[in-house]
Every structure is written in structure tokens, then in C-alpha cells.
Amino acid sequence: MKQKRQLMADVSRDWQLYVFLAAPLAFILIFHYYPILGLQIAFKSYSGRLGIWGSRWIGFANFAKFFSSYYFWRVLTNTLLLSLYSIAVSFPLPIVLALVINSIRSRRIGNITQTIATLPHFISVVVLVGIMLQLFNSRNGLYGNIMMALTGAYPPDPFQSPINFRHFYLWSDVWQNAGWSSIVYIAALSGVDETIHESAMIDGATRFQRVVHIDIASILPTIIIMLILRTGSVMTIGFEKVFLMQNGVNLSTSEVISTYIYKVGLSASGNTDFSYATAIGFFNSFVNMILIVLTNTVARRVSGGSSLW
Predict the structure, then answer these.
(1) How many domains does the chain contain in total?
(2) CA–CA separation, 92 vs 241, rounded Å?
């Protein structure tokens, strides 16, 4: 009872702060928690006429349909390969870039380098894909003209090759986002005490040794947390860029879960199945949740406590 009175007194005293808190709280409840109720259509045969609550329950039939589908292994494999490839390359590169920028002695050159590396992040995905399509056009693009000048013949269209899709997707993402992703590591490196470097230099440590044993060791908790967050989205590949780069030839490697959900749930042909699409999305989110919990547990045990929770 005493705690309740104290709470009411705090609310009465700082009511202005609680008014400011009400807007973001309402936003989270309305747009993040209330839509969770719609997940029930994954277990129903959804009918627009009957609505979410009136549609017939069918249990795990939609999940069984997806698991037995021809597309299940294709979209699952493509999603995992593209995501793991992205983690293996695009996760460590921002760390390396941050270490390089931090090692530049001239503050002005370091700032210019960071600005140049960060600018591509502000290019929209649509524009980025358009740039790639123009540059690597086998007839009118820079790639086609260079190959024509060197070989005397136009090369095949690289976007028509299923093998090239993953490389185009990944390395364009590295170019666009490596600089932006390095900001958090640069911020963490700015907190490293310079006296530690000075002491290491007196002891005869080389620049590489100081990077490994001081800089990387100092930002290791940040790296672990960012890796946990990245692992939690292994099954979530950005829909927009993949969809824009897709064509009828490279579907064998470019069809991922997010694009498959779009085609199943919002098909232009009119053969939409909202329940089936929701079930696939539910499965996708459930796997992401399991991965982030496992990664967090492993990170906490291996690193001695560095984790999200």
C-alpha cells in the first residue's frame, strides 16, 4: 500500500513526463502489440467476409502445407546462404574500416574518409539497384562497353546469372552500408584511453599489436552485442533490394522467404492466401527468435557476461 501511494505521488509530481511518455507508449501498443492478434490467421482459413475472428480454425495445416511445399527448401536455403554470406563478409568489414579510420593520425583526413564511406548509405535502395543495372548493362553500360572494347563482342548479361545474384547483392550492400555500420565501432573506439596506447608504445608494442590487444579488446563487448542482433535477423533478408534484383532467370537463388511471402500474400494474379503467408512469416519470426536466444546464451558463456540479457 505504501508503494502504491508513493507511485501515485510520483505520477502526480511528474505528470508532465508521463504525458510525454503516453504518445510513444500508445504507438508501441497500437502498431507493435495489437497487430500480434492478427497472427491467429496463420492457424485459420482466413476469409475476408468472415474476418479474423470469424474465420474457421484449421490448426497447423498452413504450416504443414509450407513444410511440404516444393518451395520450402528453396526459399529456406536461399535465405540462409544469402544471410550467412552477408554475415561472414559485411559484419567484420565495418569493424576493419573503423579500426583503419581510428588509426589515421590526421583528424581531418579521418573525418573526410568517414564521410566518404558513410555517404552511400543515404542512397535509396531503388536508386542503388538502378545504378547497378546501368553500370553492368551488357549493351549500354560501362561493363558492356569495356568488354566490347577488349573482346570485340558484347558479354552476357551478369544479372541473368543465378550465381552472380548473391555477389551483386552482398558487395553492393557492403559499399552502401559498411561506412554507416562502422559508426558504432568508431564511437566505441573513441572511448579507449590514450594512456593505454602510450604505455604499450613504451613497452615496445607495434601498431598491429596495439590494435589487436587494445582496440579490438576494448570494443569486443560492442562487437558481441552487434553480432547477437545480426544473428537474430538471419532469416530476415531485406525484401526491397532482393525483389528489385529478381528476374525470371535468377529465381533459383534470389527467391527468399520475404519475397515468397509477398508473392503468396499479395499476388498480382489474385490467388492470394493471407493465412498461408502469415504462417510463413510466423515461422520466419520464430526461427529468428530461437537464433537470437541461442546466440545470446553462447555469447554470455563464452565472453564472460557480454550479452543483451
Answers:
(1) 1
(2) 22
